[in-house]
């Protein structure tokens, strides 16, 4: 019998926890600062309504009906589209391996927060604290240099991840009650402090007052759409897994809207924290769209200037990095849950053993990120997955649902339990069939254009050698795109030993 969420709130909190991650806390404020504050928020909201919500609804509703993870759900739509589900799973594998390293860095900074007590006013010392400890070379050279404190934090990150999901929805439902509420409480505390600082209103003004001329910048539209797409955890198998554990009477329409706008609310709350704090310490123009730079280099400089009290600054650092820990853990274990659900469903394996195996295997691979070359490798892998394979997966998911399947069947499933507001046909179907695929194809083309004509090495992410881009970028993309074929080969081998895979289509599945 398939596991289920213990309650509606457990699912909503788990989905919010997955959607709300480190990108909300550090990338969203940086992009808002870069693109005219309120103008960026305006485009972000449009992208959320037109692309984010319909795609999220599609993944959850299909998974609830099929009771399968991403590959099984896509296979039920059309037997030829199962590979799209494995693309989503492979995205999750690539992302979770490096995300665990980022989580380890956050744990490290939390542990080292006591050092901020001796750094009051010392912005140079604060900004170098992280880079010195992780021993980064800033290049893809330096594999023999290892930061043992980061190794310990990485082991802790994977252990925490497994503990949170070892019993599936049972433990996840208990954990998210705390890991979703605690970062909100931490952000509120930091927001109150930010608002009380001098010049805080200039921070509010920069965040909320639109600079409408910024709308003429095509990069604003690309980054706002990308932020929505990445933030809601679509195209990486998570929401398929979570949707497959839902009861038949779930009101997916309302729940998805709650999830989406909670994600946006927490992003804006994080923006308030960042803008008011940076304004208060006179660093409003120092904000960066790079999450790594913001969390580990720029914001530590702000922390040591928040007050003249070493103890207060230290406590503030502990709160900030604890907030990031609670944001990171939800995102990591939700990705692993998506992978584990897909693999255990396909090969009829024990879910608990599958989860443990995935954590151990990925944990070993993630050790590459604790070397001196780790930061550079992470930068390359993150860029290629987020800019290419994740977008390709989203495009193919919507083409499969919109053109290789009768989209009205998904809409009927989506609206099955709605008593009041229903997802309108004029909103859902055009988005899935036309608008979202076209917009994402444009986003993909723009990223590819910038890669080729970005001013660096042809076909390589700027700042790194072509060799490094091929090994850690294009090879990773190739592996992800071939994942469906790899699974087919494994199934063929297992079939010769008596394994029989599920072969049910949408119409074969009967609801109780």
Kindly describe this structure.
The chain has helices spanning 8-19, 22-34, 38-66, 70-77, 82-111, 123-134, 148-165, 169-179, 181-196, 200-208, 218-231, 238-244, 252-280, 291-303, 310-347, 351-365, 374-403, 407-414, 425-452, 466-481, 483-495. By secondary structure, it is mainly α. The longest helix is centred in the middle third of the chain and has 38 residues, at 310-347.
Keywords:
single chain; 512 residues; mainly alpha; Amino acid/polyamine transporter I; 21 helices; 72% helix; globular
Total count of domains:
1
**Oligomeric form:** single chain
The ordered H/E elements are HHHHHHHHHHHHHHHHHHHHH
Number of helices: 21
- Flag low-confidence runs: none
Distance between the termini: 13 Å
How many runs of DSSP E, i.e. beta strands? 0
How many strands, what sense, and barrel or not for the largest sheet? none
Q: What is the level 1 CATH name? A: Mainly Alpha
Structural class from helices and strands? Answer: mainly alpha
């Amino acid at each position: 019998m398939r596991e289920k969420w213990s309650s509606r709130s457990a699912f909503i909190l788990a989905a919010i926890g997955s959607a709300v991650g480190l990108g909300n806390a550090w990338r969203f404020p940086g992009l808002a600062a870069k693109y005219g504050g309120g103008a960026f928020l305006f485009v972000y909201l449009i992208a959320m309504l037109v692309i984010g919500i319909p795609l999220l609804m599609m993944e959850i509703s299909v998974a609830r009906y099929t009771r399968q993870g991403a590959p099984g759900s896509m296979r039920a739509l059309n037997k030829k589209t199962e590979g799209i589900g494995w693309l989503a799973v492979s995205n999750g594998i690539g992302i979770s391996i490096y995300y665990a390293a980022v989580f380890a860095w956050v744990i490290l900074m939390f542990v080292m927060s006591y050092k901020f007590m001796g750094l009051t006013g010392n912005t140079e010392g604060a900004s170098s604290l992280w880079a010195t400890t992780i021993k980064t070379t800033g290049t893809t050279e330096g594999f023999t240099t290892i930061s043992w404190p980061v190794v310990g934090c990485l082991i802790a990150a994977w252990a925490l991840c497994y503990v949170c999901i070892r019993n599936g929805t049972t433990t996840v439902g208990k954990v998210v009650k705390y890991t979703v509420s605690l970062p909100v409480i931490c952000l509120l505390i930091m927001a109150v402090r930010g608002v009380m600082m001098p010049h805080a209103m200039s921070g509010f003004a920069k965040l909320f007052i639109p600079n409408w001329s910024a709308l003429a910048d095509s990069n604003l539209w690309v980054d706002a759409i990308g932020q929505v797409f990445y933030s809601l955890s679509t195209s990486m198998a998570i929401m398929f897994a979570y949707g497959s554990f839902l009861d038949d009477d779930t009101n997916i329409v309302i729940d998805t809207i709650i999830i989406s706008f909670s994600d946006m609310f927490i992003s804006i709350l994080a923006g308030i924290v960042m803008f008011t704090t940076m304004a208060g310490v006179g660093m409003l123009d120092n904000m960066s769209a790079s999450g790594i730079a913001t969390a580990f280099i720029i914001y530590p400089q702000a922390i040591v200037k928040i007050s003249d009290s070493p103890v207060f600054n230290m406590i503030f650092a502990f709160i900030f990095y604890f907030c990031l820990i609670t944001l990171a853990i939800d995102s990591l274990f939700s990705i692993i849950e998506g992978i584990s659900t897909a693999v255990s469903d396909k090969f009829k394996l024990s879910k608990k053993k599958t989860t443990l195996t995935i954590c151990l295997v990925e944990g070993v691979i993630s050790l590459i990120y604790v070397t001196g070359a780790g930061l550079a490798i992470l930068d390359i892998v993150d860029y290629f997955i987020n800019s290419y394979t994740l977008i390709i997966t989203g495009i193919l998911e919507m083409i499969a649902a919109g053109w290789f399947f009768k989209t009205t069947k998904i809409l009927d499933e989506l609206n099955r339990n709605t008593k009041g507001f229903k997802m309108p046909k004029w909103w859902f179907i055009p988005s899935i069939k036309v608008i979202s695929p076209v917009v994402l194809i444009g986003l993909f083309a723009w990223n590819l254009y910038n890669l080729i004509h970005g001013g660096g090495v042809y076909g390589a992410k700027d700042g790194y050698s072509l060799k490094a881009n091929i090994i850690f970028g294009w090879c990773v993309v190739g592996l992800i795109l071939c994942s469906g074929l790899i699974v087919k080969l494994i199934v063929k081998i297992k079939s010769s030993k008596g394994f029989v895979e599920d072969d049910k289509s949408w119409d074969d599945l009967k609801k109780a």
